[in-house]
Specification:
The complex is a heterodimer of chains A (282) and B (289). With 282 residues, chain A is α/β, with parallel strands linked by helices. Helix content of chain A is 40%, strand content 24%. Chain A has one domain: Rossmann fold (3-Layer(aba) Sandwich). The termini of chain A are far apart. Chain B is globular. The chains are: A alpha/beta (282), B alpha/beta (289). At the A-B interface, helix 6, helix 10 and helix 11 of A face helix 6, helix 10 and helix 11 of B.
Chain lengths: 282, 289
């Protein structure tokens, strides 16, 4: 079932002093319910602009964007659309509003005018989903970056969205925080069926998704499974994007005549591939 | 030759209050002239507190910091001079731009050093070239630059002071792969041409693996390791216990060793992994080596 559908989506920033700047050029993209999509591309390629269209923070200047068949251009639907699609941003410190974790998570549902008993239930559920229930009475500013980001995710979950869009949620985190957030997002997708769109510059994170969409110069440039995308090492390197290190290692060895598969993603797969190649050769 | 030393460096925040916290615990080490040291440790490990002692932004609770063998706090009135010699680029330095033009922003630190206008001008242009900012951008407002350009302008401002030691706190955080690669090459070139000692604080093990001669590992305010890069990354289990990780190629090599495949040495960049494997097993095609 289709959750989000962009059809010939165009967007340009208008500035009275300058010529308009086109950021999105005829983007066609559909996101199915339950998918985990990683959105890749350089800064300025339009991926954050696209993400902001998913919950009607920006409106198309051409083409349409539908969320569950609701057109984002219809401003009367904005509130409904934002209940369906929640947004988590890069800097956790800019997203926390309260001095107590559970009050912070309650902020969204309170604004929706939900019954107090239901809010309590939603806040507890959301905190359990991100594994932060034990911290419900703590002060958010004293938590680690990864914990803060999980609180921000809980705040979105408490609105009961159908889809979460995360814009570089791990860019400011240390390796441990990054692992925590990625595991949380994966679990929400696998166990709770949450649709996830995650923008990232970390190729290992993109490799964990079901589908990778690469944007370049305002267009969808590649779209496929992580294996399909990352096996195109040369094409990605041409536009100066990275591939996961194990993929790159296998590609370089293949270029030297080693008979290895092109679609290796993880360190474990790389070990298997090299080990079985060397065995065959011996 | 040693350029920086710390002796039993200890820092306690909010001493004597219920919030007392020992952020640095008895750190003794020395940094050699011209080397590039990567500093890793998870958030709260004390690495930022540590580097802020090296140019006197923080004063030790006990212990000493020596620059060229001299205690930087010997004459507290002279601490400003230490800050000219040990330059610090903070995290997200683009938030600290404030001048009307990019040129003035880069010149700010060098000007404060009391250099002649010609000298300041030469340094601004050199620094801008190192970080790849084109001349025509220098007259623009820094606020019209892109995120990556702002970051580079801020770094150029510290480079223009031509410090003996340059400390960069997470210089690539939030950049895209292209911006990250460019900035790392620029840092490498700057070091090659100037012989500057560089301390690079980073969460990216790949960045550290690519640039560093030695790696310093902080954990809970203590110095856990300070050793050549390959040695540190060969201790993957210890690093993982501290919430850190090793580059993915290092994991591949560890996996091969566990399978009983003798890969000879360790690898921590894709380049070194390819050459190690080819050196050991030869190129593809037939059975050799």
């Amino acid at each position: 079932m289709i959750l989000i559908e962009a059809d010939k989506l165009r967007f340009q920033y208008e500035n009275p002093d300058e010529p308009p700047k086109t950021v999105l050029r005829d983007v066609d993209l559909t996101i199915e319910r339950g998918e985990f999509v990683a959105l890749l591309g350089h800064n300025g390629c339009g991926k954050s602009t696209l993400a902001k269209h998913f919950n009607a923070l920006l409106l198309p200047t051409g083409g349409t964007l539908l969320v569950e068949e609701m057109n984002t251009a219809d401003e009367e639907l904005s509130i409904d659309i934002r209940r369906k699609v929640g947004l988590v941003l890069q800097n956790p410190d800019n997203q926390l509003v309260s001095t107590v974790v559970e009050e912070d998570v309650a902020f969204g549902p309170e604004n929706l005018g939900i019954e107090p008993a239901e809010i309590r239930r939603r806040v507890d559920d959301a905190l359990k989903m991100v594994d932060m229930y034990d911290y419900r009475t703590h002060a958010p500013h004293k938590l680690s970056g990864g914990q803060k980001q999980r609180i921000a995710i809980a705040g979105v979950l408490a609105m009961k969205p159908d889809c979460i869009v995360l814009d570089e949620p791990t860019a400011m985190l240390d390796p441990k925080g990054r692992r925590e957030v990625l595991e949380t997002v994966r679990r929400l997708n696998r166990e709770n069926g949450m649709t996830v769109v995650m923008i990232t510059h970390y190729m290992e994170e993109a490799a964990a998704a079901d589908r990778v969409v690469v944007m370049n110069e305002g267009r969808v440039w590649m779209d496929g499974t992580p294996r399909e995308i990352f096996s195109q090492v040369e094409a990605l390197k041409d536009v100066e994007l990275d591939v996961p290190q194990p993929t790159e290692l296998c590609a370089e060895l293949r270029a030297l005549g080693w008979d290895l598969p092109a679609d290796v993603l993880t360190a474990e797969e790389c070990v298997d591939a090299i080990a079985s190649y060397l065995e065959d050769r011996a | 030759m040693t350029v920086l030393e710390t002796h039993n460096l200890t820092h306690v925040y909010a001493e004597g209050t219920p919030f007392e916290k020992t952020a640095l615990d008895d750190v003794s080490l020395s940094i050699e002239k011209g080397e590039l040291v990567g500093i890793i440790g998870h958030t709260g490990s004390g690495k930022s507190t540590f580097v802020q002692h090296l140019n006197g932004l923080l004063k030790p609770t006990s212990g000493k910091v020596l620059l060229d063998g001299e205690d930087i706090w010997k004459d507290p009135k002279q601490i400003r001079r230490v800050r000219f010699r040990v330059g610090m680029v903070f995290q997200y330095p683009e938030y600290q731009l404030f001048e009307e033009t990019v040129y003035k922003d880069i010149a700010f630190g060098a000007k404060n050093m009391g250099l002649s206008d010609e000298e300041v001008d030469a340094r601004v242009r050199r620094a801008a070239a190192f970080v790849g900012l084109k001349n025509e951008l220098l007259d623009n407002s820094p606020f019209d630059l892109s995120g990556g350009e702002k970051r580079r302008a801020a770094i150029a401002g510290v480079m223009a002071m031509e410090p003996e030691v340059l400390i960069l706190d997470e210089p690539t955080a939030g950049l895209d792969p292209k911006g990250r690669n460019n900035l790392l090459s620029q840092i490498e070139n700057y070091r090659k041409e100037n012989g500057t000692t560089i301390l690079l604080v980073s969460h990216s093990m790949e960045d550290v693996a690519r640039l560093a001669d030695r790696v310093l590992v902080m954990h809970k305010g203590q110095l856990k390791m300070l050793a050549p890069t390959d040695e540190v990354f060969s201790r993957a289990e210890e690093l993982e216990e501290m919430g850190l990780s090793v580059p993915a190629v290092t994991k591949v090599f560890m996996g091969l060793k566990n399978r009983g495949i003798n890969v000879g040495q360790n690898a921590y960049t894709v380049e070194s992994a390819v050459s190690a494997l080819v050196a050991r097993f030869g190129k593809g095609g037939g059975a050799d080596a």
